[in-house]
Amino acid sequence: MHHYDLIVAGGGPAGLTAALYARRAGRTVLVLEKAGIGGQSASSPRGENFPGLPAISGAELADRLYAQAEAAGAAIELEEVLEIRDGPVKTVVTDYSTYTCGAVILATGMTHRKLGLPGEDTLSGISFCAVCDGAFYTGRDTAVVGGGNTALQDALFLSELCRSVTVIHRRASFRGDPVLVEALQKRDNVAFRMESTVEALEGRNGALCALTLRHTATGEPSRLMVDGLFEAVGQQPEAPLARTLGVADADGFIPAGENCRTVLPWLFAAGDCRCKSVRQLTTACADGAVAALAACRP
Length: 298
Ligand code: NAP
Prior knowledge:
Elements: E1 3-9, H1 13-24, E2 29-32, H2 58-71, E3 75-77, E4 81-85, E5 90-94, E6 98-106, E7 110-112, E8 126-127, H3 130-133, E9 141-145, H4 149-159, E10 164-168, H5 178-185, E11 190-193, E12 196-204, E13 207-215, E14 221-225, E15 228-231, E16 235-237, H6 240-244, E17 267-269, H7 281-296
Parallel strand pairs: 1-2, 1-6, 2-3, 6-17, 8-15, 9-10, 9-15, 10-11
Antiparallel strand pairs: 4-5, 5-6, 7-16, 12-13, 13-14
């Protein structure tokens, strides 16, 4: 059984930064990622607020973080962590292997929230990732639901490909950055349906063909014909491990402070899974550095 000084659950910006810092502190480190290197941020079409990298896609940033951590000597495996056990050494069980280590960092990030509508899981034409699926809708009519930065970035990305993009948001103003809103307002093929919610999904032959919208103030319903709906209504923590270890709060976030320490002395939390007010690439990377240095402290 392989033993590492540190095991990091999650290969997003927080986890890969933690691995880099742990290697630079001379520790052996294994990063375990269940889905895709880079986490949720890898599907971001274009980031413009990572210092020093004025325009970079999430995928390219993920590649760079991976290459840097690997070059520093981190082991990185695509395996899902199923269980973490306490003991004189800690045991980490994955879907492929079992490892032991001295400390663990949970950098398990978040997953997309759903609208919870009938047909959401069965109709084709529903997506949670514009970068992954946008090309399927080239020249077609799409909608994006949500008012945060993900929705705004997705709409900008889709407007380059699609005949039309309708942004549907439940409030009168956006939560996302004004600079993205202004960029969208300049696009001829982008329309806005503010103060509107998606009430129902309409399918034809198993494929989405229309949305029923409702205006939140007037209650008036309307029908919007679309070929694709991109859902960007926020994230929820990836919480099973934290819950099993008894370190999650009621919402599934881990209440570790700025030092990233949990109530267990050998367990640290970094990135979006930690209770915090600002969830950005920069703060995820910062958490990774802090958690790794804390975990490496003798
Ligand atoms: P978010 O900021 O939480 O926004 C979620 C949006 O979905 C909100 O506008 C919310 O409406 C709406 N919403 C939530 N539940 C809904 C429902 N049931 N029906 C309809 N609308 C619903 O999520 P996000 O956009 O995924 O961003 C997550 C974090 O990542 C944020 O901190 C964001 O700044 C960050 N991020 C940063 C960048 C960047 O810096 N370039 C890019 C992407 C994401 P309300 O506004 O009414 O609550």
